[in-house]
Amino acid sequence: YVLKTQKPLFGSPEVIKKLIKDGEIISTSRTPVRFWLGVPLKTRKKTIGVMAVHSYDEDVKYGKEELDILLFISEQIAMAIERVRSQEGLTKLVSRLKQAQGEIAEKEELLTRSIIASDFVHNLNNLAGTIPVWANALKEKTEDMIFEIQRDVKKLLREGEKLKKTAQEEKIDINTLLESLLNNVRIQYAETEIKKEISDELYPVQGVKPYLSNAIYNVILNGIESVFEKKTRTVTVKAGNYTENNQNWVKIEIADTGEGISEKDMERIFEHDFTIKGEGRGYGLWRAKNTIEKKCSGRISVSSQKGKGASFTILLPGSEKDK
Fold first, then answer.
1. pLDDT of 106
2. What is the mean pLDDT of residues 281-298?
3. Contact present, 212 and 291 (Cβ < 8 Å)
4. Can you tell me the mean pLDDT for 21-49?
């Protein structure tokens, strides 16, 4: 009855008899209860039980004082039960979140690899598109051009083979990585001037080489795409060692002479599926930020003025050089 009404019940003999007569309660005791006092155990959401005392002795009666005490005790018990349930729920939630985090990491790994594979095919198509140009130049530089073609095709095939294997973290030679990247970019986008100012002896960086290479490539590609409509197409890549708070960093700056990025767009420039290019896919810079920050413990930022181009700064933790 208390569960149904969710209200305290002070059961004197008269009240109990009336409830039995009305069919609200059923007496199962052979010895008639003289006084009965019950209160609901309430949590914030629902009534979860009843706390009751009763007496078979006419001299033992309950009044408002006993009701207040019982209500107070029931509130404390209900709060304790709620805390225990909340703790159990929190433990389950944490467990589910950890499981979901693992699943997200696995899917992110698959997504990154599939995107790299997509970019590999894209690069292969770009290389294929330069073959007619090379063919016309073969008349003058046959041996040199054949060597260049063979070298780059072999490199693409090697990169394709790497996609079949699980990428492993390693100490990356940033000088070699940047030189290789810029050579490929110059071949693919010959109409864009690629300037470089790269210091010798850059700190090595710990990370997964294909992922980091792909991340930097996407930032460079963003710059190249930004100058497509300009008469002067220039992208400048600078790299040097940098120290901050006793931490060694490799600082890479990628600047373009494009139209720049508005202040409003800069707030979203690293968001997934966001692009200011009409035909852009909207995940290049998002993926670059994800790789640099999550897989390399680095940082990436952007500065720009509308009409004056944009500059992306990448900071990567430097490792000790091998002796």
1. 66
2. 85
3. yes
4. 77
Characterise 25 by phi-psi region: left (phi > 0), alpha (psi -120 to 50), beta (else): beta
Helices 64-163, 174-188: crossing angle, 10 deg rounding = 70
- Give yes or no for a contact between 157 and 124, defined as CB atoms under 8 angstroms apart: no
Per the CB < 8 A criterion, the answer to whether 217 and 283 are in contact is no
**pLDDT surpasses 90 at 178:** yes
| Helix, strand, coil content of the chain in percent (nearest 5) | 50, 20, 30
**Range picked from 63-77, 123-137, 255-269 for highest mean pLDDT:** 255-269
Q: What is the CA radius of gyration of the chain?
A: 36
Residue 27: phi and psi, rounded to 5, are -90, 120
| pLDDT 10s digits, 260-283 | 888 888 888 888 777 776 555 567
DSSP, res 291: I
Find residue 317's DSSP bridge partners. Answer: 249
Q: Where are the beta strands (DSSP E) in 144-229?
A: 169-172, 193-198, 205-208
Report which of residues 143 and 245 the model is more confident about: 245
Strand order in the sheet with 47-55: 9-11, 35-42, 47-55
Q: Whole-number mean pLDDT of the chain?
A: 79
Q: Which residues, 6 or more positions from 27, have their beta carbon under 8 angstroms from its beta carbon?
A: 16, 20, 33
Strand partners, 100: none
The whole-angstrom separation of Cα 41 and Cα 43 is 7
- Confidence label for 208 from pLDDT (cuts 50, 70 and 90): confident
**CB atoms near residue 268 (< 10 Å):** 13
Beta strands per DSSP E along the chain: 9-11, 35-42, 47-55, 169-172, 193-198, 205-208, 234-244, 247-256, 299-304, 310-317
- The answer to whether 228 and 278 have CB atoms below 8 angstroms apart is no
Pick from 250, 248, 158, 141: which is nearest to 210 by CA?
158
